[in-house]
Amino acid sequence: MKKGKVNIMPDYSNVLNHGVTSATPDKILLGAGTIHVGLEYTNGSWNFNDTIFGATKGGSKVTITPEIYDPEIDGVNVKTKGISDIKTGETAQMEVNFAELTGELIKKLTLGKTGTSADSNMNLIEGKPQIESGDYFEKFAFVGKTVTGKPIIVIFDYAICTNGLGTDAQNKSNSAISATVECRADLSGGNLDVLPYHIYYPTETTTSSSSSSSSSGTGN
């Protein structure tokens, strides 16, 4: 008699239900973060308190995008590794919703200048014909925190506001002043192929392999 074929089911017991690990809380960005100007790491610490630029409403958004060119070549009918992805540049910007409207922010948004006010109780900002070096931010930064309180920092060495000044004053609500801040390269830096942005994130905590192996040993 011919015996029937026995189907053996594969073992799927190692299929995971989630991707959470012990390091996950260090990698989750939580909260609106803060905005700084002049942020740097010197003498073993960051100057967070001295560089805060203002309170926000509605948080901030960081976008860094490489510019990719796909050349047209006869016979290459699908995007192909090594030939379809030629980096030609990049953009980096932050979109910030400020809750505070300060004189410095107004000047940076309008690319304006300080004028002479007829009212001694009021400051004056006016337009000007050209952009000057003082219109650029230096070390403009977003600082976020992970679930465990560790900082994630994005710094633009040089940046400029590109969206102008706009307000959304409404009844029974405080306004948010939107600022689009774009990273810029520096002519004196020599490298005009990449933007001077920097992203700092926490080092991962690793478990010692020696301690785990010693605890699993049975001895003689």
The assigned structural class equals: mainly beta
Uncertain runs: 207-220
List the helices and strands in order: EEEHEEEHEEEEEEH
Mean pLDDT across the residues is 90
Could you describe the largest sheet, including whether it forms a barrel?
8 strands, antiparallel
Record field, number of beta strands:
12
Globular, elongated, flat, extended or rod-shaped: what is the shape? extended
Strand share of the residues? Answer: 35-45%
- Count up the domains: 1
Share of residues in helices: under 10%
The CATH architecture term is Roll
CATH topology value: Pnp Oxidase, Chain A
Q: For this entry, what is the oligomeric state of its chains? A: single chain
Distance between the termini: 53 Å
Radius of gyration: 26 Å
Describe this structure in words.
The chain is mainly beta and 220 residues long. It has a single domain, classed as Pnp Oxidase, Chain A. Helices cover 9% and strands 36% of the residues. It is built from three helices and twelve strands; from the N terminus they run E-E-E-H-E-E-E-H-E-E-E-E-E-E-H. It has helices spanning 48-51, 103-110, 209-216, and strands spanning 29-37, 41-42, 45-46, 52-54, 56-69, 86-98, 113-114, 125-126, 137-146, 151-161, 177-183, 197-200. Strands 1, 4, 5, 6, 9, 10, 11 and 12 form an eight-stranded antiparallel β-sheet that branches. A two-stranded antiparallel ribbon has the order 2-3. The longest helix is centred in the middle third of the chain and has 8 residues, at 103-110. It starts with 28 loop residues before the first strand and ends with a helix.
